[in-house]
Known about the structure:
Blueprint: E1 5-9, H1 13-24, E2 28-32, H2 36-59, H3 79-95, E3 97-99, H4 102-106, E4 111-114, H5 120-130, E5 139-142, H6 153-156, E6 162-167, E7 176-181, H7 187-199, E8 203-207, H8 216-232, H9 238-249, H10 255-262, H11 264-272, H12 283-296
Parallel strand pairs: 1-2, 1-4, 2-3, 4-5, 5-6, 7-8
Antiparallel strand pairs: 6-7
Amino acid sequence: MSIQKVTVAGGGVLGSQIALQSAYxxxxxxxxxxxxxxxxxxxxxxxxxxGIYEQTLEALKTDPSAFCRGLTDSPDVPTxxxxxxxxxxxxxxxxxxxxxxxxxxxxxxxxxxEAIAEIIDEKRTFYSSIRDLLPERTILCTNSSTLLPSxxxxxxxxxxxxxxxxxxxxxxxxxxxxVMGGPQTSPGAYQAVVEFARAIGMIPLEVKKEQPxxxxxxxxxxxxxxxxxxxxNDVADVETIDAAWMLxxxxxxxxxxxxxxxxxxxxxxxxxxxxxxxxxxxxAFRIAALxxxxxxxxxxxxxxxxxxxxx
Length: 311
Ligand SMILES: NC(=O)c1ccc[n+]([C@@H]2O[C@H](COP(=O)([O-])OP(=O)(O)OC[C@H]3O[C@@H](n4cnc5c(N)ncnc54)[C@H](O)[C@@H]3O)[C@@H](O)[C@H]2O)c1
């Protein structure tokens, strides 16, 4: 099927990136937000992203190292073409429709990408609430980091057109899209999503069977959890743990810088969902408490200007 109208549900860290990136690549994008307050919180995120896209393309005129795989096909783009792409960022930004109206958002969508909070009951409730609004053709994707399509499929009413399309954060440069179906996902829907991912400048990574955490998070979540445990158990401080990783491996970022990019809310939701987090003597409990304390202080990561570090 051909996808043209895309609706992104949720305007958080990832929802805003997916929406702008899809519009930048020429799709008609609507963002569904659950309240006017949520719309007001989404706009500055989109404006920040617009600035990043425009500045990156501007920098590429003189600096090939500014190349981001999601924005251009190669670092070698003539200035006039870069000017057209910069204009395209503005066109994409202006074209985004932000609405709380479910009929407007879902009634005509070819593809819906769900990027709401990583809480299974909230995702299930969301799918149940939109299932009767969607046209029959609509393919529904979750951007969930840790939940399996099969855990949510029955709530969508369209298990054969439901699958996971999982982006990495900062999708204009970390441009992977992990595509993972559930047992009932049809090959046609799967292939359409692989093609859509490619069309918005992502590199589709095909996951052959359901795997919690897909490829990236099967590696990243245990890594970040290990760093959080070191902090929660007072083994070392944030800077020292990051230094151990960066100096020891040559990696450009340590785990707490990565957590600030991921956003502390998502990190909290992941640890809080583990049974161990209910046990006051457990490391998971202490990790949840330290993340919660920062979140309550408004230090939710790069987007908020402060997480474990100040920005
Ligand atoms: N942050 C990352 O690095 C990252 C990477 C890949 C995938 N994801 C996944 O994307 C999804 C969203 O993550 P995020 O980091 O953008 O979260 P976020 O907290 O930044 O944003 C969540 C958005 O969903 C809205 N929302 C929350 N609960 C809702 C509900 N019940 N109904 C409707 N809207 C609701 C919020 O208002 C907000 O707009 C999660 O499933 C997460 O696992 C996150």
